[in-house]
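A.,

Following up on our hallway conversation. Structure tokens first:
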């Protein structure tokens, strides 16, 4: 038997259309989740851009969502019907490799099963994402949503949030740290909020001064304009950590020059090829790193931290019927700072 629900599936011309969807019957360790809110990520745009609606497997985007448990498999012990939960961009992993054993399922050697566009590890079917009214998820990859977190503002934490949280924690960001965040978008604004909550002296790097007020509102201590060569030169070797969330291809050299002795540039936004002059690393023993998503322990810890410190995404909520509008505006960077779809209009 299969379950049926409704969601937004890719059709021609990289648009989404409302359509009935099939979900599997619950396995012993599964949860059925009514999806209430789902964030809209740049990854969704990329998936649509490369999707061939005529020949590819079905595509239902959405990999950062919150909702409520509506049914549990008979082996599930940690969740009950009615529990609020959050689900991110990974819904399974091998559970056996060194990365999985270390709690870094995001780096699973067998590759993690993605929330959409992945292959189910049991039956090989294509996973369908959170732009739908119901999802069926393995219980290990659902997280209790802490009290005090707004479910809509919490949804982007499961992708954008965990993507910046893991490097901030891995690099030891805290009260004695100077942090600069390059790019004030979906990832960047959460990096600022988290760095500030961790106690760091936090700055924003932006192409212009237009976001100076937003930077202050988010808690940043100041803003550097990347086009201002004099100010960038004056800030050389100033930051222990630079979190680079810029999504377009760009030169890393100006950002490496801002990194202090033995500091790190964490390059998160653009996942394509980069060119690095080794002298930019050599002078100051600087390090270049990256990160992607997060493992189960880090994701749970992030949610608890955000609840304790009142950290959520700055969002614009749209009914899911306006999903194509949200995608079009996201292409133009016309959002501050994350769209979230309200899926209740699929009832």
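Then the amino acids I'd put at each of the 347 positions:
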């Amino acid at each position: 038997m299969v379950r049926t629900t409704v969601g937004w599936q890719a059709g021609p011309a990289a648009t989404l259309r409302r359509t009935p969807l099939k979900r599997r019957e619950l396995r012993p360790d599964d949860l059925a989740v009514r999806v209430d809110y789902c964030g809209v990520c740049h990854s969704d745009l990329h998936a649509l851009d490369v999707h061939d609606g005529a020949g590819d497997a079905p595509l239902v985007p959405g990999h950062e969502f919150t909702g409520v448990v509506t049914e549990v498999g008979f082996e599930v012990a940690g969740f009950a019907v009615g529990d609020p939960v959050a689900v991110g961009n990974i819904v399974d992993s091998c559970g056996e490799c060194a990365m999985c054993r270390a709690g870094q399922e995001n780096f699973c050697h067998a590759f993690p099963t993605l929330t959409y566009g992945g292959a189910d590890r049991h039956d090989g079917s294509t996973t369908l994402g959170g732009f739908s009214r119901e999802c069926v998820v393995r219980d290990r990859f659902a997280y209790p949503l802490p009290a005090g977190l707004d479910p809509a503002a919490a949804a982007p934490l499961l992708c954008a949030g965990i993507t910046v949280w893991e490097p901030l924690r891995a690099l030891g960001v805290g009260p004695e740290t100077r942090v600069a965040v390059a790019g004030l978008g979906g990832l960047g604004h959460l990096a600022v909020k988290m760095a500030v909550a961790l106690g760091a002296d936090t700055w924003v790097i932006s192409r212009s001064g237009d976001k100076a007020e937003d930077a202050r509102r988010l808690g940043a201590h100041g803003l550097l304009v990347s086009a201002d060569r004099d100010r960038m030169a004056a800030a050389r070797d100033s930051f222990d950590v630079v979190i680079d969330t810029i999504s377009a291809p760009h030169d890393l050299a100006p950002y490496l020059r801002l990194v202090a002795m033995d500091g790190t540039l964490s390059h998160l936004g653009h996942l394509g090829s980069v060119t690095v002059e080794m002298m930019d690393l050599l002078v100051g023993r600087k390090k270049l790193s990256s990160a992607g998503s997060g493992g189960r322990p880090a994701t749970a810890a992030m949610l608890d931290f955000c609840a304790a410190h009142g950290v959520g995404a700055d969002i614009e909520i749209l009914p899911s019927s306006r999903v194509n509008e949200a995608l079009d505006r996201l292409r133009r960077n016309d959002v501050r700072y994350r769209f979230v779809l309200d899926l209740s209009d699929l009832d």
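The mean pLDDT is 96. Curious whether your intuition agrees with the design.

B.
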